[in-house]
Amino acid sequence: MADVEHLETGLPRQGHREEDGPPGPVVLGQGDYRYEVSGENWGRRPEGWIYREATAVAVDQRDRVFVFNRGTAPMTVFDTDGNMLDSWGQGMFSNPHGITVAPDGTLFCVDNGDSTVKKFTPEGRLLMTLGEANNPSPPMSNRPFCYPTHVGVDPRTGDFYVSDGYSNAAVHKYSPEGRHLFTWGESGTDEGQFNIVHNVKIDRDGWVYVADRENHRIQVFSSTGTFETQWVNLSRAACLDIDTSGERDIVYIGEYFTGISSNDIATNLGPRVTVMTTDGKILARVGTQAYGSQAGRFFSPHGIAVDSKGSLYVAEVAHSDYGRGWNADPELRSMQKLVKVATA
């Protein structure tokens, strides 16, 4: 399943690879949600180390940044200044896809290459494995797992949810100990149905937010899997994070480009980040231009995380979606930090 990320979207095989934009900082967003971007790969790594592509990113309560990637070391750990603190994971993963920090600081890592979910200490000691490696369930059987994508953890209870994903159309709920509780979802476009269930996150009240990527929406469910609402004014919603540190929860959504080759210079179609409240109000759109390597543009936001200062980390599957078609270097930019700009 090495090619599971690549989708034939009709995008041109060359283009959008101009020199970086004008010198000086590039600031994206609106109002209280404005960010300065560098447009370059973030994180200082030893010489010769590559991400190849960063697929997911998570920030723990100590503001350590965990970058899950398909390069030299599948897990690289940084401080918020980009200094590398640790690395691990060589030989442990087939195709890194999703990472989540649980409230107790442990890490859930989803490997969609071998259809497993693994739980680790922050230092890389394996605690639990769900699924049998390289033995996926039958496609669309809705039995765990058939190329899963991500884990979301309920901060109140420790229960966790697995989005599953590329060849299933389901969300599975588990107890903190890893006991399967129930499953919901099916293929389709109606409420409670999924078309690439790609990411899942839980807010402080236990509501379950699911990135239903190819249906271009976020669906919101109760902790029992009952449909509550949906947000449809989005591009291809691929990833999300929820900041629960303030008076209200804030949702950050990473979206892929949703155009085709005939309108690949159109604006406001993604790739971008959308900032929303949990009642669906849009606070900011971060990025307006089409995909590209210039500062101020994105490729394919595949993972997103927010730190204690409100800055964002965006992991992108740039090589899978663009680099291979362009015969580009194995490492396009795939890991950006968006530093939140102080407001007056």
What does this structure look like?
- Helix content is 2%, strand content 41%.
- The protein contains 1 helix and 27 strands.
- The longest helix has 6 residues, at 318-323.
- The model is unreliable at 1-21 (pLDDT under 50).
Short overview:
This protein has one helix at residues 318-323; strands at residues 26-30, 33-37, 54-59, 65-69, 75-78, 84-88, 96-101, 107-111, 116-120, 126-130, 148-153, 160-164, 170-174, 180-184, 186-187, 193-194, 197-202, 208-212, 217-221, 227-231, 236-243, 250-256, 272-277, 282-286, 301-306, 312-316, 335-340.
Topology:
Elements: E1 26-30, E2 33-37, E3 54-59, E4 65-69, E5 75-78, E6 84-88, E7 96-101, E8 107-111, E9 116-120, E10 126-130, E11 148-153, E12 160-164, E13 170-174, E14 180-184, E15 186-187, E16 193-194, E17 197-202, E18 208-212, E19 217-221, E20 227-231, E21 236-243, E22 250-256, E23 272-277, E24 282-286, E25 301-306, E26 312-316, H1 318-323, E27 335-340
Parallel strand pairs: 15-16
Antiparallel strand pairs: 1-2, 2-27, 3-4, 4-5, 5-6, 7-8, 8-9, 9-10, 11-12, 12-13, 13-14, 17-18, 18-19, 19-20, 21-22, 22-23, 23-24, 25-26, 26-27
Strand content: 35-45%
Quaternary organisation of the protein chains = single chain
Average pLDDT over all residues = 92
Largest sheet: 5 strands, antiparallel
> How many distinct helices?
1
Number of strands: 27
Global structural class: mainly beta
Distance between the termini: 49 Å
Give the ordered list of helices and strands: EEEEEEEEEEEEEEEEEEEEEEEEEEHE
Biggest sheet: strands side by side, in what order?
Answer: 1-2-27-26-25
What global shape is seen? globular
What is the C-alpha radius of gyration, as a whole number of Å?
A: 18 Å
- Which stretches are low in confidence, meaning pLDDT under 50 for 5 or more residues running? 1-21
Helix content: under 10%
